């Protein structure tokens, strides 16, 4: 029997508007590491919508405020000091008794201990920097408040600091004043004129460096831009600033959204639970998503910075100006904003290759979540801890749902819907229903069935069967929603397609499928055409279709849709890998010829280097085992190795020629974007070459971190002396740079070598690993627990190790522990021996007396 009955879940069906509103908040902070004094002045009023026409002053109610880990000093209501009999103080709440339902001024003083706050929620101090993280429920760790997203307030904030300790003190909105105090301290006053929920409140203070710039909006307003970082690191912020200005311009051009304050700030901090946080006017970022140079960041990191800087900026309208009514609406802001940052990145990096990256990520991380014990709809219906629902489903699948709307409505009508959404709901806390209503009302398109995407969990499986009658020349497709009977929730699927006769497209468009099953009359053809379907991955589904091998080879070579080319090639490679596992592999000369054709095309397709790299790559062990009901890890590794070996041997001369060609090309190429594609293709080819001395030589003479990391990752699996040479040399070079050293941690943790567990344990016990830092935990422990080959070894020692790490982390930072716990979710895919060993370790964790709700909710669902 599940133990979860002892813990109370929050349910969407229980939502009720707050009886109280807080239209204005005045905060004053006296910052000290061990005892920060917080003074709050809350302008309280009864919610008139709950008692229309009533004489509210005659009604008294209990005012319930959230509060955790706070030391209460005093409470004043309308200037009157309250006695202990006037309120009830509990571990997670403060209840003020018999408050008349009229306007009040509530003043509360409390202290907090930032330096001991290892959970990194609320206000904490790390490496001398004061920082906040309040989404979703961190503000209650700063001050007593109605800490829910539908309480919108205008904040005025005063920060009093020792200028020697904190020469910089920042908060939301515009900087109002800086005053000198008689005691030598300074007072910084900030005001955000836009009402916001408490989760968007932010404060940062410390000794920071800064770079500055400005942006002129389309209406001619000047916006000051500031990016802050630790001392000595400001020169690494230039690309982030460039990305910010690109995002601001793009949002004006694409969605008509202009920035609304006089100042926009970003702060990079080392210890941060999330990637970044969109606090109004004061974004706080994990430093790995701000700091970059060619020597200290890979091409992938540069693209992550571009995307996440844009994502947090786009939240200014889709998340801040319009926010969530409750946390069950999380995908309203996150799914929509992920989609917007994907569109932005596609415009800057290329539609086809960016779409391939997004789909590859979705299939590798969201699909397993959608089909495992943590499966939930993009709008969950209940939770034990909302932190557990910042998931790939809410974010990435949520973005796919918005993309389907974009596909169904078209670019122009989607923009009309967005314009109506901004006009109708600016300054409000709303629901996913409100958003879809705007899309429907602006276009008069019936979206009643489409709305079910918010309620149905799991990855839909559509089965396609093609029928061609040579006599009637009729070509039809029958389709069926395989999961329909288990959910009884019909969905709408936009399916983008093209029909090929010979090498030419003779028909194309979008089929709008809805319900359980149906038939598509494709048309009349002299011979069976070739169908390119699910182009641009137009619906987040698994497509069951026994398309002929001939058709797959054609589409791998000639489809004009980048996603279909890549996907068709991967289907062929997966067939080969599976046949090798099943010991029924037969050589197909078309595979060899396909690789030869792709390699021969490189010199004449300089603008498609990145796509060509994707077409050449072989699925890895995670890709392959994701589609296995029970993992066959050693067999899959062997099959992948054999396939890569055959490619290497059959095309050795062409691979080497192209590698040398790309080396010469990169020496001359000045465009950074084109160089990214060139490096990606060069390093893909390098992974096929069998000369480890060449791989090591690239590391020795690399002038960028991308090439260094490519060599490091290739040799991380080696059993030769080159493994030790590159690991030792890389560590010696980068041991003083934690962000770069994270690549070393992750390469060690992801290695397929038999001594990987021992090496990971040694690193964890070293002075270079800090279990309090989420980046270090993710790089080492997160990657190791996702290393299926070594984590799921039959002796179970890796399970014991990660079990102890989860328990240790849960006492320090439950969010880090919960993220690590999610990597145990493939329990049902393991052979019985490993399954029992892993289950035993999960049960040990669940018996821990003070286990957090975060970890409990995840692991309890597994067993």
In short:
The protein is α+β, with helices and mostly antiparallel strands. 41% of the residues lie in helices and 23% in strands.
Q: For the record, what CATH class of one domain applies?
A: Mainly Beta
Number of strands: 31
Structural class: alpha+beta
Question: What is the name of the CATH superfamily of one domain?
Answer: tricorn interacting facor f3 domain
In the CATH hierarchy, the architecture of one domain is Sandwich
Number of helices: 27
User: What distance separates the N and C termini?
Assistant: 10 Å
How are strands sequenced across the largest beta sheet?
A: 6-5-9-3-2-12-15-14
Arithmetic mean of pLDDT: 96
The CATH topology annotation of one domain reads as Immunoglobulin-like
Account of the 3D structure:
With 863 residues, the protein is of the alpha+beta class. Among the domains are: 194 residues, Sandwich (Immunoglobulin-like); 132 residues, Neutral Protease Domain 2 (Neutral Protease, domain 2, Orthogonal Bundle); 74 residues, Immunoglobulin-like, CATH 2.60.40. It is built from 27 helices and 31 strands. A hairpin with a 2-residue loop joins strand 27 and strand 28. The chain is globular, with a radius of gyration of 28 Å. 46% of the residues are buried. The N terminus is likely disordered.
């Amino acid at each position: 029997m599940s133990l979860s009955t002892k813990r109370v879940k929050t349910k969407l069906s229980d939502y009720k508007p707050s009886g109280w509103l807080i239209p204005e908040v005045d905060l004053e902070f006296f910052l000290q590491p061990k005892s920060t004094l917080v003074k709050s002045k809350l302008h309280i009023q009864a919610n008139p919508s709950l008692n229309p026409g009533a004489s509210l002053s005659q009604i008294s109610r209990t005012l319930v405020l959230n509060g955790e880990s706070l030391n209460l000093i005093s409470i004043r209501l309308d200037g009157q000091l309250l006695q202990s009999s006037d309120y009830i103080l509990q571990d997670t709440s403060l209840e003020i008794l018999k408050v008349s339902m009229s306007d009040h001024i509530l003043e509360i003083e409390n202290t907090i201990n930032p330096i001991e706050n290892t959970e990194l929620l609320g206000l904490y101090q790390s490496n001398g920097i004061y920082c906040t993280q309040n989404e979703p429920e961190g503000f209650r760790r700063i001050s007593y408040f109605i800490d829910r997203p539908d309480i919108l307030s205008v904040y005025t904030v005063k920060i009093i600091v020792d200028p020697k300790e904190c020469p910089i003190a920042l908060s939301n909105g515009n900087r109002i004043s800086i005053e000198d105090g008689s005691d030598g301290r300074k007072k910084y006053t900030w005001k955000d004129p836009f009402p916001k929920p408490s989760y968007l409140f932010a404060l940062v203070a410390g000794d920071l460096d800064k770079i500055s710039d400005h942006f002129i909006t389309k209406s001619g307003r000047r916006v000051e831009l500031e990016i802050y970082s630790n001392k000595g690191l400001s020169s690494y912020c230039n690309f982030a600033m460039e990305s910010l200005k690109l995002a601001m311009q793009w949002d004006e051009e694409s969605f008509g959204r202009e920035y609304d304050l006089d100042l926009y700030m970003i702060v990079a901090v080392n210890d941060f639970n999330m990637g970044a946080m969109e606090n109004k006017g004061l974004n706080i970022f994990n430093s790995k998503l701000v700091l970059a140079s060619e020597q200290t960041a890979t091409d992938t990191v540069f693209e992550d910075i571009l995307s996440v800087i844009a994502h947090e900026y786009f939240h200014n309208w889709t998340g801040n100006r319009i926010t969530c009514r409750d946390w069950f609406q999380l995908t309203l802001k996150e799914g929509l904003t992920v989609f917007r940052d994907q569109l932005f990145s596609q415009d800057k990096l290329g539609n086809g290759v960016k779409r391939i990256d997004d789909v590859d990520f979705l299939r590798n991380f969201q699909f397993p979540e959608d089909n495992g014990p943590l499966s939930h709809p993009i709008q969950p219906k209940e939770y034990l801890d909302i932190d557990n629902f910042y998931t790939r489903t809410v974010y990435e699948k949520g973005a796919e749902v918005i993309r389907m709307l974009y596909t169904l409505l078209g670019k122009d009508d989607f923009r009309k819907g967005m314009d109506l959404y901004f006009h109708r709901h600016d300054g409000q806390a709303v629901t996913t229903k409100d958003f879809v209503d705007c899309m429907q009302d602006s276009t008069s398109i019936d979206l009643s069935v489409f709305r079910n995407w918010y309620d149905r969990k799991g990855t839909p499986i559509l089965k396609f069967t093609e029928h061609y009658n040579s006599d009637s020349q009729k070509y039809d497709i029958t389709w069926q929603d395989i999961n329909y009977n288990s959910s009884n929730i019909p969905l709408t699927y936009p399916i983008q397609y093209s029909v090929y006769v010979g090498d030419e497209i003779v028909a194309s468009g979008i089929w709008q499928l809805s319900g359980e099953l149906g038939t598509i009359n494709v048309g009349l053809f002299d011979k069976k055409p070739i169908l390119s379907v699910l182009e641009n991955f137009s619906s987040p589904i698994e497509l069951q279709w026994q398309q002929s091998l001939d058709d797959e080879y054609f589409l791998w070579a000639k489809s004009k849709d980048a996603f279909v080319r890549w996907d068709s090639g991967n289907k062929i490679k997966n067939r080969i890998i599976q046949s090798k596992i099943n010991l029924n592999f037969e050589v197909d000369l078309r595979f060899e010829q396909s690789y030869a054709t792709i390699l021969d095309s490189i010199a004449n397709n300089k603008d498609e280097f990145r796509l060509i790299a994707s077409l050449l790559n072989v699925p890895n062990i995670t890709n392959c085992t994701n589609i296995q009901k029970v993992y066959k890890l050693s067999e899959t590794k062997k099959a992948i190795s054999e396939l890569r070996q055959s490619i290497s041997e059959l095309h050795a001369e062409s691979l080497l020629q192209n590698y040398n060609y790309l080396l010469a090309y990169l020496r001359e190429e000045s465009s950074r974007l084109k160089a990214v594609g060139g490096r990606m293709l060069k390093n893909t080819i390098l992974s096929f070459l069998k000369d480890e001395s060449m791989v090591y030589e690239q590391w020795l003479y690399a002038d960028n971190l991308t090439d260094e990391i490519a060599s490091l990752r290739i040799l991380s699996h080696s059993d030769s002396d080159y493994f030790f040479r590159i690991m030792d040399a890389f560590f010696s070079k980068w041991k003083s740079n934690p962000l770069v050293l994270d690549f070393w941690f992750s390469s060690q943790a992801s290695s397929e070598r038999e001594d990987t567990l021992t090496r990971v344990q040694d690193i964890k016990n070293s002075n270079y690993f800090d279990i309090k830092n989420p980046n270090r935990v993710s790089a080492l422990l997160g990657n190791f627990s996702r290393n299926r080959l070594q984590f799921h070894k039959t002796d179970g020692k890796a399970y014991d190790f990660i079990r102890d790490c989860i328990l240790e982390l849960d006492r320090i930072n439950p969010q880090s522990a919960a993220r690590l716990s999610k990597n145990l979710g493939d329990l049902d895919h393991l052979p019985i021996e490993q399954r029992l060993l892993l289950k035993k370790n999960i049960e040990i964790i669940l018996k821990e007396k003070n286990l957090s709700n975060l970890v409990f909710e995840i692991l309890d669902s597994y067993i």
